[in-house]
């Protein structure tokens, strides 16, 4: 047996799977575990207003809620060769959907009175892209990715806190499938943590520019930026966690990230089940002013005056 | 036909009322900064009206503007229209949503804002289609790609023409990323045999194949709304699709489905299997 290729997705999956049970997923590229998370802050404990980690959170014990943790990782033996590098392909999309829906079904079937809180879902996001291939298209990779997005959205609507933790790449259709339907998105402020619609090399080719030209353009256009600090300014992030080694975190760093996840779960439980919080952030007021204007005026015009 | 003409034509005569139309001048704030002339509707037409006498909303993407790409404004117009339709449906005032999905996907000039707003379209679709069927139409040759192909996959019913294409990655992108041996994007016959409307219909990724002829589209829409919401949407049909994929992976050792042809797939995944979902 050769060693599994390392990836940030696997590193952080193993961190969050500690003390839990690994669930056989049916695909080597999709990791699933049910694992304990620290208790969320007590309901009457004040929640930090400032983005983490400026406001340190108390270290919580590793008991309490059991969360379902999901990650997509490289699999050099993937039966679909275009999805061997950590891409979200056919098997990955449908397998994520299966295990997200299994968590929804398990809590739906729980007939204890009163019903317990729905288990949190934690998507560890390190996805390089969707799989690019002829067979992927023929076999409906668009539907496979939609199935994963559908499952996460259904979980959110059913009341599961869905948290995405960005530890590496969160690219395009792969992020739409795995993470972008979360109630709360957290990201590590570390090199290599990237959100984008298309990698710079491909984007340069498609727009017929050099990569250097593209980077100059990107600097002047916030939505085109690749780095996570620029992405934060768009208002989609719940928290950006700095001072974390994304490849080899120290125990203290792990503890901080765990606490941030617990806080986000608690915050999600108190908030609406839609994505409206992404437009309510101070950053969105500025960067997404046009989105807010569209929503305001479309609502005004909806019913004939 | 332009998106506006399609929206007007599909609604009952005289009922078309455009929201955030050209005179509202809600255009992309990002394109001018990159030297690109914006359009006053940002390439999306939202219209209220009636369809067969029922309250309806149409969102139609104009593929002639920036390839039907989704920027902050255009994608948010669609997401918000779907959210408002859901609000009305929840209040007991059913609104029939009709989407014309001609889109190259995210507009690269507005990359992360387009992507984020497309995620909001997906969220809105999943929430709305429980209350009313959401019907998507892909008619023209531009096709439906990128994040909007996921939106098409989330529709309750998908209507396509033979000229239509539906795929996640455009052929040119696949050729660039994976090489011409993976896909020759200039080979139109090959491309349409893989992702064209007839193949998508035959293999169950689309529900109705029509000519791009208004009465036919109208009839297909009427039937889709009459069928109501299914017990399980295609994108939630997890066990069926996983079983199919694992079957393929088992039979093709090492390199799954290396030799699978579009005709093979028609035999393996015939559309009648999707009718009883």
From TrEMBL, chain A:
InterPro entries the UniProt entry points to: ClpP/crotonase-like_dom_sf (IPR029045), Malonate_gamma (IPR009648)
SUPFAM superfamilies per record: ClpP/crotonase (SSF52096)
Biological process according to GO: carbohydrate metabolic process
Pfam family, one: MdcE
NCBIfam families to which the protein is assigned, alphabetical: malonate_gamma
Name used for this protein in its record: Malonate decarboxylase gamma subunit
Organism: Chondromyces apiculatus DSM 436
């Amino acid at each position: 047996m050769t060693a599994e290729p390392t990836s940030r997705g696997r590193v952080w999956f193993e961190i969050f799977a500690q003390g839990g049970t690994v669930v056989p997923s049916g695909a080597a590229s999709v990791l699933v575990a049910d694992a304990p998370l620290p208790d969320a802050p007590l309901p009457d404990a004040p929640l930090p207003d400032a983005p983490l980690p400026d406001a340190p959170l108390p270290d919580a014990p590793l008991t309490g809620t059991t969360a379902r943790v999901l990650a997509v990782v490289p699999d050099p033996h993937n039966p679909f060769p275009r999805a061997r590098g950590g891409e979200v392909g056919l098997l990955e999309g449908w397998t994520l959907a299966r295990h997200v829906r299994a968590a929804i079904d398990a809590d739906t079937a729980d007939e204890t009175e009163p019903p317990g809180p729905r288990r949190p879902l934690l998507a560890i996001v390190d996805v390089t892209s969707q799989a690019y291939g002829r067979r992927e298209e023929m076999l409906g990779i668009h539907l496979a990715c939609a199935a994963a997005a559908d499952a996460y959205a259904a979980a959110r609507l059913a009341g599961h806190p869905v948290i995405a933790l960005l530890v590496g790449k969160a690219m395009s259709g792969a992020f739409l499938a795995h993470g972008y339907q979360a109630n709360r998105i957290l990201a590590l402020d570390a090199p290599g943590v990237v959100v984008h619609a298309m990698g710079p090399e491909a984007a340069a080719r498609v727009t017929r520019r050099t990569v250097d030209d593209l980077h100059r353009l990107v600097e002047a256009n916030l939505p085109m930026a690749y780095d996570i600090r620029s992405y934060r300014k768009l208002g989609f992030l719940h928290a950006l966690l700095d001072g974390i080694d994304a490849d080899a975190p120290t125990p203290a760093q792990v503890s901080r990230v765990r606490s941030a996840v617990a806080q986000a779960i608690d915050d999600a439980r108190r908030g609406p089940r839609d994505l409206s919080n992404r437009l309510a952030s101070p950053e969105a007021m500025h960067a997404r002013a046009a989105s807010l204007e569209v929503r305001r005026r479309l609502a005004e015009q909806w019913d004939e005056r | 036909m332009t998106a506006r003409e399609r929206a007007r034509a599909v609604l009952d005569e005289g009922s078309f009322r455009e929201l955030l139309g050209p005179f509202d001048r809600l255009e992309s704030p990002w394109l001018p900064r990159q030297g690109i002339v914006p359009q006053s509707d940002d390439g999306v037409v939202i219209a209220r009206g009636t369809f067969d006498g029922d309250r309806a909303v149409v969102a139609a993407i104009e593929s002639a503007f920036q390839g039907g790409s989704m920027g902050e404004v255009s994608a948010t117009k669609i997401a918000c229209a779907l959210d408002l339709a859901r609000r009305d449906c929840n209040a007991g005032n059913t609104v029939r949503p009709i989407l014309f999905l001609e889109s190259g996907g995210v507009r690269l000039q507005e990359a992360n804002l387009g992507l984020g707003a497309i995620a909001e379209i997906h969220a809105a679709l999943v929430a709305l289609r429980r209350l009313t069927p959401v019907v998507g139409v892909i008619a023209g040759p531009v096709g439906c790609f990128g994040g909007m192909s996921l939106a098409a996959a989330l529709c309750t019913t998908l209507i396509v023409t033979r000229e239509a294409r539906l795929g996640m990655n455009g052929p040119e992108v696949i050729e660039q990323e994976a090489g011409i041996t993976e896909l020759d994007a200039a080979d139109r016959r090959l491309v349409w045999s893989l992702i064209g409307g007839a193949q998508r219909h035959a293999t169950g990724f689309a529900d109705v194949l029509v000519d791009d002829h208004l009465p036919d589209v109208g009839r297909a829409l009427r039937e889709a709304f009459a069928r109501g919401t299914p017990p399980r949407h295609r994108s939630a049909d997890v066990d069926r699709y996983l079983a199919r994929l694992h079957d393929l992976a088992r039979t093709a050792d090492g390199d799954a489905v290396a030799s699978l042809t579009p005709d093979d797939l028609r035999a393996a995944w015939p559309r009648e299997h999707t009718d009883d979902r």
